[in-house]
Amino acid sequence: MATEQHSASNGSVKHRHRQEGPQRHIVVFVFSVVLTLIAFAAVAAGGVNATFAVVLLLVMAVLQVFLQMGFWMHLKDKGHLLPIIFMLGGFFIAGTSIVMALYWVWWD
């Protein structure tokens, strides 16, 4: 993100961040809609291999998560490291819990 510099009357330099316009949000929204349409088309097209459809849906879901986190929740911006660390910790704990629950259910 570009910054603009403005001189104050006392000679110091103030940094001001340029506001992010709606163009990037519109592009991300259209990309999210396209990903959703691809996922619906893969499921609706009956002749697609089930394994391929599941993998495609998982890839589309991961892309959607990154787009939504980065652009709609503004985690791509500076100063959002702590929320990212807490979310990664939550994903790790949730993933570990799911793997362990599956292991306990199917352990012989």
UniProtKB/TrEMBL annotation:
Q: Which UniProt keywords apply?
A: Cell membrane, Membrane, Transmembrane, Transmembrane helix
A Pfam family that the UniProt record links to this protein = COX4_pro
Membrane-spanning segments: 26-46, 52-72, 84-106
Where is this protein chiefly located? membrane
Q: Topology in the membrane?
A: Multi-pass membrane protein
List where this protein forms a coiled coil: none
Where do the segments described as Disordered lie?
Answer: 1-20
Output the InterPro entries linked to this UniProt entry. Answer: Cyt_c_oxidase_su4_prok (IPR005171), Cytochrome_c_oxidase_bac_sub4 (IPR050968)
Keyword Transmembrane helix assigned: yes
Keyword Cell membrane part of the UniProt annotation: yes
User: Where located?
Assistant: Cell membrane
Q: Which biological process annotations from GO are given for this protein? A: aerobic electron transport chain; electron transport coupled proton transport
Q: Name one GO molecular function term.
A: proton transmembrane transporter activity
Q: Where is the composition biased (Polar residues)?
A: 1-12
Q: Which GO terms describe its cellular component?
A: cytochrome o ubiquinol oxidase complex; plasma membrane
- Homology family: Belongs to the cytochrome c oxidase bacterial subunit 4 family.
Q: What is this protein called?
A: Cytochrome C oxidase subunit IV
Source organism? Paenibacillus graminis
